[in-house]
Amino acid sequence: MVLREDADRSTYTQKVDFTKLRSELLALDSSDTSMTLASHERLSNDLAKLNSRLRDEVNRAQASVRLDLNLEKGRIREEAKGQELKIKETETRIEQEVAGLRERVEGVKFSTLQWLM
After folding, report:
1. What angle do CA 54, 59, 64 make, to 5 degrees?
2. If you compute the radius of gyration of the chain from its CA atoms, what whole number of angstroms results?
3. How would you label 48-60 residue by residue, b for 16+ Cβ within 10 Å and e otherwise?
4. What value, to the nearest 5°, has the Cα angle with vertex 47 and ends 42 and 53?
């Protein structure tokens, strides 16, 4: 009977050991799962923050480029107005010189006609 009691005790001890081992493994698995979930949540939050920062940087860059383009357009318009004004001044000067030359030609014609008569 001693052998039977030793076998029962040994079986009971093994069952208890297996139960403890199972509890420890479940606890470790649960701990690993919670750590993994916490890590995933932290990474998701970091990714959302980085995405937001990137979006802000892109918006800032686009706004800066739009501002630069608008300033450049304004500068080009001003430059075009200045060129247009110079062209008009040149046209006016040419018209005045042509008018002066016409007067001189008319004067020369008149003198030639007077001289011929």
Report:
1. 125
2. 50
3. eeeeeeeeeeeee
4. 130
21 or 85, higher pLDDT:
85
For 56-110, write each residue's pLDDT tens digit.
Answer: 999 999 999 999 999 999 999 999 999 999 999 999 999 999 999 999 999 999 8
At 36, which helix (H) or strand (E)? Answer: helix 2-116
In degrees and rounded to multiples of 5, residue 43 shows phi and psi of -65, -40
Q: For residue 96, what are its two tokens?
A: 């005045």
Q: What pTM was computed for the model?
A: 0.52
* Local structure of residue 1 (DSSP, 8 states): -
Euclidean distance between CA atoms 94 and 74, whole angstroms: 30
Distance CA 71, CA 65 (A): 10
